[in-house]
């Protein structure tokens, strides 16, 4: 038997109303976040660098670009030959900059500035895998004709082993701090929930400008400091 339209609509409304609570029950409420103590741990270690980098080369000025380039190539050839004679590996000698730039005469008069010469420059970067040789190599460069020593930097060739020790110390530092907070709050420290690392493994370079006229360079490699910071969240055990 067919129901009247009004009765059919009333039945549908009652069914929808009855089903609504069942639908609401399927929505799960957010779970409370697990109690935790979050701290940072830090550790640093200073080590002697075992590799050095020297940037050096030849710069000269001539009336024409061609004559400047030719003179520069000849002078740089002598420098490269001496580096080769110093038993450096070819892979440790790399050209870092090669340029020829016009040089302008200083003038207070209006109008185009006159070119009075050209500056040719050729720089190489030398990796020195024995830091004790740095001073003697600088002397070799200067005596071979290098008139620019741009800088010297020192670093640890493979910092991974040192950083692994520092990482363990940083986590231990985080646990020490977390235990202090746990005792103060009257709770017990549980297992770590999250460990996030922020490393600063880069070297702290020592740069020293060396005069080309110096025949005896005094070099101090110093130390490189490697550091790690960790952010650790420790669970709080239920009583």
TrEMBL record:
It comes from the Bacteria. Residues 1-24 form the signal peptide. InterPro entries: 26kDa_periplasmic_antigen, SIMPL/DUF541. This is SIMPL domain-containing protein. PANTHER family: PERIPLASMIC IMMUNOGENIC PROTEIN (PTHR34387:SF1), SLR1258 PROTEIN (PTHR34387). Pfam families: SIMPL. Keywords: Signal.
């Amino acid at each position: 038997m067919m129901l009247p339209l009004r009765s059919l609509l009333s039945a549908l409304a009652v069914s929808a109303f009855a089903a609504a609570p069942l639908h609401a029950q399927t929505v799960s409420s957010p779970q409370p976040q697990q109690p935790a103590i979050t701290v940072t741990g830090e550790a640093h270690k200073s080590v002697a660098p075992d590799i050095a980098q020297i940037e050096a080369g030849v710069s000269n000025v001539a009336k024409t670009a061609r004559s400047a380039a030719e003179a520069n190539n000849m002078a740089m050839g002598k420098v490269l030959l001496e580096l080769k004679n110093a038993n450096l590996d070819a892979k440790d000698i790399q050209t870092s900059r090669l340029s020829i730039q016009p040089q302008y005469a200083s003038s207070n008069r209006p109008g185009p500035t006159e070119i009075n010469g050209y500056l040719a420059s050729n720089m190489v970067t030398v990796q020195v895998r024995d830091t004790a040789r740095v001073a003697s190599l600088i002397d070799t460069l200067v005596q071979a004709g290098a008139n620019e020593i741009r800088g010297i930097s020192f670093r640890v060739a493979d910092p991974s082993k040192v950083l692994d020790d520092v990482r363990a110390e940083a986590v231990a530092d985080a646990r020490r701090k977390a235990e202090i907070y746990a005792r103060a709050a009257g709770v017990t420290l549980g297992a770590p929930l999250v460990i996030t690392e922020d490393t600063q493994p880069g070297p702290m370079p020592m740069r020293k400008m060396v005069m080309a006229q110096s025949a005896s360079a005094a070099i101090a490699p110093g130390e490189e400091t490697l550091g790690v910071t960790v952010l650790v969240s420790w669970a709080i055990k239920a009583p």
